[in-house]
Specification:
This protein is of the alpha/beta class. The chain contains nine helices and 15 strands. It has a three-stranded mixed beta sheet with strand order 2-1-15, with helices on one face. A three-stranded mixed beta sheet has the order 3-4-5, sandwiched between helices.
Length: about 290
Amino acid sequence: MTDRPMFLMTDPGFFDVCYQINPWMRPDAWRTDPGARLAAAKAASAALRRALEGLGAQVETVGAVQGLPDLVFPANAAIVLDGTALMARFRHPERQGEEPVFREVFCRLKRRGIVREVADFPEGVFQEGAGDAIWDAGRRLFWAGYGPRSSKASLGVIEKTFGQEVVGLELASERFYHLDTCFCPLAGGEVLFYPDAFTPQALAAIRERLAPEARIEASGEEAEAFCVNAVNLGSRIVMAKAPASLTRKLEARGYAVGEVDLAPFILSGGAAYCMTLRLDRTSRPEPKLIAAE
C-alpha cells in the first residue's frame, strides 16, 4: 500500500441503462442514442479518474463485463476498512452477477497485499457495500443505511466484522435507495445530507449525533443533481455538476468543489461516490482538514 488515497473504479466499456431497479434509471433516454451515450459515459468516467488522480489518488481499475452494466458502481461491491473487505450481497437479480466478479477482484487485491481479508455476509442478509455503510473518519463509526436495498440485519454483521460502532439509518424512499445518494461525511467534521431521504427516526438519530454547526442540509434540487453522492479528499470535493447554491454552501465551509459532468451515470442513478470505492480507509484518526487554497 502507498500513502496515496486508493480507489477502485470500473472500465465503463459495457455500461448501459437497459433495466430499471431505481426510479432514476432511464432506459428510454439511453435508447435514443446508445452510441453517443456510451461515448459520453466513457468520457465522464475518464474525467472523474483524472479529477481523483489530480488530487493525488491512485486508481485501480476493474475490467468491464458484458451484461453487467452496473459494475461501473463499485461503491456497492464491498465495505472496506483496515484491510478487511466485507463483500456485498445484492438484493436485485440484475446486480447479483456482479458478486463473483468483485470477489475475484478482491482476491487479486488480497494476493497483492492491498487487502488482507475477504469476508462475507450470511446468506439472506442483503447489504450493498460502501453505498450503504459510510465510514465517518472523524467520529470513527459507520453510518449504515437500510430499507430499500440493505437489510437491517446487516448492521450487526458490519459491527461484528469491523469492531466499530454502527449507526443505522432507515431510508424513507426508493428515490434515495442507498445512503450514499443522500449522506456524505466531510473531512472537516461536517456532514452533507438530504433530510427528506430519511425516516423521522433516522433524522432524529442524525440530529442527535451532529451538532447544528456540523449539519449541511442539501436541498431537493441539490440532492436530485446527485451532488451529495460525492468524493471528499481533505478540503476538496469531487461531485457531479452542482447547483450554485451547493457550491456556495461548501465554499463557505472552506471546501473547494471540483465538478465533473456525470450525466450518463445519473441516468442510471449514480454519480461520483457510486463510481468509486475507497480501498485504503483505516480506523486510525485522520489529519485535520486543511483549508482549500
